[in-house]
Amino acid sequence: MPRAKRGFKARRRRNRILKAASGFRGKRSSCHAAANEAVQHAWLHMYRSRKQRKRDFRALWVQRINAAARGLGHSYSKLMGSLGKAGISLNRKMLAEIAISDPVAFAAIVKSA
């Protein structure tokens, strides 16, 4: 009796991993065992980096707002506190964009706060 091979389902699973590993260097793109480990690590980094990207961008916006505010003689924390008290609800992304693209408008926002 011939041995039972796994058939197309196993091949399809292996090929799915090898397709995800295309572009990797060396054995990691062609050998299923090596590719599987490499792909698992890549997916782990992708998952973690999606969270990290949000933190990185917020930190960037805070730095940009702080730099623009200090140019006008204010600190970031004092500016954000006074914006809240003044009822100006602009998020950090928009404030950073205004600070870069339109410094005059940013100065007006700071003055109104």
Give a short synopsis of this structure.
Helices cover 74% and strands 0% of the residues. By secondary structure, the protein is an all-alpha fold.
How would you describe this structure to a colleague?
The chain is built from five helices and no strands. It is mostly helical. 74% of the residues lie in helices and 0% in strands. It has one domain: Orthogonal Bundle (c-terminal domain of poly(a) binding protein). Helix 4 packs across helix 5.
Sheet with most strands: none
The number of strands is 0
- The number of distinct helices, counting runs of at least 4 residues, comes to 5
Catalogue the unreliable spans. Answer: none
Mean pLDDT: 95
- Order of H and E elements: HHHHH
CATH architecture: Orthogonal Bundle
| Amount of beta strand | under 5%
* Shape descriptor: rod-shaped
Tally of discrete structural domains? 1
Features:
c-terminal domain of poly(a) binding protein; mainly alpha; 5 helices; 113 residues; 74% helix
Write the layout of secondary structure elements.
Layout: H1 8-20, H2 32-71, H3 76-86, H4 92-101, H5 103-112
Helix pairs in contact: 1-2, 2-4, 4-5
